[in-house]
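Work package 3, deliverable 3.1, input record:
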Amino acid sequence: MKTVHIQYFALLREQRGLAKETLSTAAPDAAALYSELGARHGFTLPVTRLRAAINGDFTPWPAPLKDNDEIVFIPPVAGG
Amino acid sequence: MSFRLSEQPLDPAALKASLADAHAGACVTFEGWVRDHNDGRPVRALDYEAYGPLAEKEGARIIAEALAKFPVTRVVCVHRTGALQIGDLAVWVGVAAAHRGAAFDACRTLIDEVKARVPVWKKEHYADGSTEWINCATRGDHAGP
């Protein structure tokens, strides 16, 4: 198990009901972690429409995880 | 040369003044305003939310790419966060260059890339009281036709 720190934004923040959390997971990568969390919290966005950011920068899927990583799942952006 | 987020209203005159450069013979600016409709639905207000550190990092990369691609002298882009009303200035892009062609081209590229890549999200509040995170709809989200 590893400890990971997750921040949620926009639709994911609302669906999770939290802006951040720290948890233990056996997921080897961010894609697996998202499916674990999605099943638990009913996230509507499929992983194929998200990007992953680990420790402050975009990271290609499946985005392997290490202990104490900071993870952000990036929903489709909509600036401007 | 900067990309930044602002929780406060933007001042276009001050932003434009920050582009001043004796080498520049052209200045092109773009203002994105909050409009009162989207996809045929009346919009009452917007919220913008950003992943600040990565938004600023990606914005800086977009500006660096524009500087490498276009002969421009100065570039500034600022994006609002927080609650905005109809008519508010949501995003401002300004480019100064020796000649107008590069200034127009760089400004267009910058706003297009910012909209496509920077982690900023927009929640629309509609006249009927409903809300939606733009680009985040999935099948089954909509009650309407």
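The first helix of chain A runs from residue 10 to 16.
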